[in-house]
Amino acid sequence: MSSAIVTVEQLRHVYRKGKVAVDGISFRVQRGEIFGLLGPNGAGKTTTVRMLTTILRPASGRAIVAGHDVTREPLAVRRSIVAVLQENAVETLLSTRDNLLLYGYLHGYSRADTRKRADRAVEALELAEHLDTPARSLSGGYKRRLQLAKALMVDVPVVFLDEATTGMDPLIKRRVVELIREEAERGRTVLLTTQLLDEAEALCDRMVLMKEGRILAAGTMAELRQRAHKAFRLFVRFRHDTKEGEAMLRTLAPRSVKAEHGEYEITVEGPEDQWIREMARISERHPLEHLEIRGADLEEIFFELYGDVPQEAHAD
Amino acid sequence: MRYLLAIAFRDYRIRLSNPVLPLWDVLVPVVYLLVFGASLERWLGGGTSGLDYPRFFLGGVLSMVSFGIVFNSSYAFFEDLQGGIFHEMLTYPFARWEMLLGKLLFNAAFSVVGVFVCMAAGGAILRIAVPLTSWLPVAWWSVLGTAGWYFLFTWLALNLRGFNAYHTTTSALYLVLMFISNLFYPTQQLPAAVRWIAWGNPVTWQTDLLRYYTYPSAQLPYLGRETAAFILFVLVTFWLANRKLNGTIE
Questions:
Q1: Whole-angstrom Cα distance, residue A63 to residue B89?
Q2: Using the beta-carbon criterion (under 8 Å), do A56 and B10 form an inter-chain contact?
Q3: Which of A37, A103, A260, B23 has its CA 20 to 30 A from that of A121?
Q4: Which among A196, A201, A140 is positioned nearest to A168, based on CA atoms?
């Protein structure tokens, strides 16, 4: 029996002006999984999340969330989900504390229960210093924290996070990543969209890569690597760092070369054994101290599938 | 019910975060009543025209309370849309009709306060006392009027989306609905074309319903039809707003 908690079949959405935002996508998310929707701006990630969270009606296709059809049983879907949307959706006129309390009441919790949940969320997201600050005075990063804190207050099986860590500083981002992992370990399913490839690579059990409303590739990181089998990263350190050594690496026509503290990281395309032979040849003239060959990371997979890497992918 | 109360509480907190705005909503109709009521009465000859103008105008001002509160609060609705909180609320665990009624609840309660303040001010300053037995029906028709206008403005906001388009449309509507009606003056003397528009205006229907309780000697020959039309107006606007909220909101 399938343990899919989100099932998407041939889902499509067309905006009023005729723009096809999502064009017949299908995927499944298993219970307790952290699942990523990746892609550059305009790929259709947010529209997909909006359909799954019942904000938008699909033009065609089907989506089941926590056993409920998003079109036929939208209320049952909403009772099974919590969503942090892309915008900084906070009550700007209210304080951080009042935002959290209001969120609890709007999710049907009693006053006492809401206070307990809010206290836990404040501690988890380190918001104590800003409890009485009006939300309009919070920085973008703090607004995102507040949104995540709201999501942590609610016990539901599926959590949607749309660009949840945008604008956060690296330390709190690491904390958020840990929190998302903890939520998944507690059995909650997390479906997140991001343009930050390192974040997706670190967090997601499985992911789909989207472009112009379609899915280009889907699977675990290992499965995606197989799709990008042509790309390898070579980490090279010469025994004696010389310009000639670097020049020889450049004769391999790499896709990219990075040099730092005498170590070169080059990305190349072609069969792996070809690169082993090439490096052996270079080593005869310029002995190597260190050589490591790694499969593609998400950035290379992106490059291979999209021909480019989204600007925001490097924001971290 | 807990969701309705939570949504109403939310609107209460947001609106009351700037106490000047709600105060404005309540005070403006009172000022209209006192200034227009007193000055036009004097201009019309202190009742020699056969029209007790302050009493006549009280029904219009009570109608203005519902309309004004909704008109002003609809801009907050737009801020929610642009800030993203509106879309987030669409993912909360309640039905769209609950969202509509919850948001109406605060406005409706506020309109009751508004009409009670107006009637109290009218009684105390202009000596146009409304019998206490009429206060409850006045509150009821004010709530229903607030509902109709709230649903209509919600539907407009969701369809127009752009703030400029919304502002232009509602400002034009404001002029037509407020001034081509029986709110300020009796419609019988108006040119025929304008009179027909006024008779088809829900502001006229609501004003006559309120006038029935505040100006017992007023001539209201179409009250039965106006009551039916007004209830239909509220039901149709609710259906439109709920349908729009349940559909796609881009």
A1: 20
A2: no
A3: A37
A4: A140
* Look-up of token digits 């099932």: A7
Judged against a pLDDT cut of 90, whether residue A126 lies above it is answered with no
Residue A308 pLDDT exceeds 60: no
Kindly report the average pLDDT of chain A as a whole number.
83
Give the separation between CA A252 and CA B212, rounded to whole angstroms: 92
Distance from CA of B34 to the nearest CA of A (A): 34
Closest CA to A23 of A175, A156, A214: A214
Nearest CA in chain A to B2: A108
Beta strands A263-269 and A214-219 are unpaired
Query: What's the pLDDT at B148?
Result: 95
- Indicate if the pLDDT at residue A2 is higher than 70: no
Which of B9, B84, B250 lies closest to A89 in CB terms? B84
Q: How many residue contacts between A and B have a Cβ separation below 8 Å?
A: 82
Q: Span A4-225: which CATH code?
A: 3.40.50.300
Domain of residue B211, residue span: 2-246
Residues of B with CB under 8 A from a CB of A: 2-3, 6-7, 9-10, 13-14, 17-18, 83-85, 87-95, 246-250
pLDDT digits (tens, 9 = 90+) for A23-78: 889 999 998 898 999 887 888 888 999 999 999 889 899 999 999 999 999 999 99
Contact A297, A233 (CB under 8 A): yes
* Nearest CA-CA distance, residue A167 and chain B, Å: 17
Q: Is the pLDDT of residue A170 over 90?
A: no
* A230-295 is classed CATH 3.30.70.1150: yes
**CB-based contact A89 B250, cutoff 8 Å:** no
B13–A54 CB contact, under 8 Å: no
Per the CB < 8 A criterion, the answer to whether A162 and A122 are in contact is no
Residues of B in contact with A107 (CB under 8 A): 92-93
Closest of A230, A142, A124, A239 to residue A183, by C-alpha: A124
The total number of structural domains that make up chain B? 1
Kindly report the average pLDDT of chain B as a whole number.
85
Same CATH topology for A4-225 and A230-295: the answer is no
> Domain-by-domain residue ranges, chain A?
4-225, 230-295
Across-strand partners of A233? A267, A294
Residues in B closer than 8 angstroms to A46, CB to CB, are: none
Q: Which residue has the higher pLDDT, A15 or B50?
A: A15
Closest C-alpha to B4, from B87, B95, B75, B112? B95
